[in-house]
Predict the structure.
Amino acid sequence: MTSLATKEGTSYGPELLVRLRGGRRRAQLEDRLRELVRDGTLTAGSRMPSSRALAGDLSVSRRLVVDAYAQLLAEGYLIARQGAGTYVAQATAAADGAAPPQVSRAPQFDFFPGAPDLSSFPRSLWLRAMRDVLRVAPDGALAYPDARGAPELRRALSSYLRRVRGVVVEPDAIVVCSGATQGLALLGRALVTQGVTAIDVEDPGLPPHRAVLAYAGLQVRGATVDEQGVDVAALRAPVVLTTPAHQCPTGVVLSPQRRGELVRWAREGGLVIEDDYDAEFRYDRAPLGALQGLAPDRVVYMGTVSKTLAPGLRLGWLVLPASLIDAVVQAKALDDLGCPALDQLVLARLLETSAYDRHLRRARRRNRARRDALIAAVARELPRARVSGISAGLHALVRLPRAVDLQGLVSAAEQRSLRVYPLEFHRIEPAGEADALVMGYANLSEPAIDEGVRRLSEVLREL
Ligand SMILES: Cc1ncc(COP(=O)(O)O)c(C=O)c1O
């Protein structure tokens, strides 16, 4: 008596592989289902087949299945949802004393610096734009895409970047990539093919970026960051990766003096990779154009929708000097032949119709309120801490009143369902103590920010 093949999406529920042989069939069925939950074959939250379907497939009475389900419900392996079927429970309180399956719980208060408010992703705008795209796109739009990106998106991006960031750009200088991260990987490889061997990156900086560049074959070296931004005088490699608008992670805005030095450095032969990852969000300062606008032949501009829409979209772009276009396009084609066509067309449509601008205005207001909530909560709960890096972006730097043990801090926070990100995580050579936290505020509601900071103050008192 073997498996069940039922139609998913109907009242029958999903398929399930169960075999019953010989007598004591109800006990056999119960044992087998317990086993499937414990070993994770049936994952928490997944739907069980209806009792009718399972009974039919196993050629047993429906009563037998109903009784087996009832037993497992009582043991905590399954849960019933009124009128909506039977599901595998989150974690079992099994009566037989077996260890419940490990279910990892996301912390309630996660100050992850890299995420926008995912709950306000403009779903209906995206859906409407996708409908429009599907209605009007010719069949050819579904063929293998242009490796550089959909022409519609490159056109829309070039006018957006010129208008909003002062980037000097034509559509042919843009390569759309799977997030800025892929852009960096492609660029790394292109630079290696052109004989570059080393790159300077900001220290502290983003660890995955260092890893991507090293994987591309470059020697990655740290460049100091101080209260003016990256120390240009200390650059040694011919290429530097930098975040001038809002240094990641300290939040420092590159000072006018350093900006001048960096542009001079580039004009004298250096190559700057300008990661403009969160520049759309600036709050109390006048807009500052991208550095690329001052030296377009010596600056690669890198952008993304990961902070403005959602990192899960995996859409970003490079604006390249002429000398790098062919090598990067070749790397992109060899990597994946281009980004998903429909998503690119949807983004193009949002940009062209100004829906993207409207979304940004709303997001800016919300982010500013959350940033203000973070500043107020720190002033209230941790009056001796100092918040900086607040004029832009989606995260701030909170300097703690004193250094504390790094792992102790992280694990004491986890115990309170709080996740924090010490600045040390971003250093090339981290120390064992934390004296500052990089706190993302955009993906937490204001009450959650208040409560998270309150818990942080408790943790710090105990350490
Ligand atoms: C400094 C920096 N650059 C770029 C990105 C975006 O990368 P991607 O577009 O690959 O998501 C992030 C995301 O957290 C970031 O922190």
Remarks:
- Residues 114, 179-181, 206, 243, 248, 275, 277, 304, 306, 311, 316 surround pyridoxal-5'-phosphate (CB under 6 Å).
- Residues 1-11 have pLDDT under 50 and may be disordered.
- The chain has three domains: 1-104, 109-116+360-462, 120-358.
